[in-house]
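B., you asked whether I could sanity-check this one before it goes into the benchmark set. Here's the sequence:
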Amino acid sequence: VALFAAFLERGKKHRNASLTASLARTLPYNSDSEWLAHIEAEAGADLRKHWTPTAANFFGRVSADYLDSLMIELTGCNVEGNGFKAWKAQKKAEKAAAMERLFTDPDYQKAWHIDTEKKTRIDAWRPDCL
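And here's what the prediction gave me:
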């Protein structure tokens, strides 16, 4: 009883945060992505408003092949072109840092010919696992 009373004394905001966290832990994240997309839309959640992938928090944790595919997907670059050939020759850590720049550095985006459509795609992109 004392623990419950202490919980209530922390207020409505704490109560709601605790209930939300408890509910989130019960969700079956690997099952129905359509259902999770619906929950996300209903909640008004947008991961990219609060998180931008960086070399430290994402790009450095995936394979070089994944980064190559992502670069092609986001930039639409010619895989036979000099830009992608130079990209492909980089070490993984360099690719991770460059991918971070693609997401955050307007000058680097200009070098990769990122237009409004591609910028929108980059700004909305998130890993499939999220």
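One thing to flag: DSSP finds nine helices and no strands in the chain. Otherwise nothing jumped out at me.
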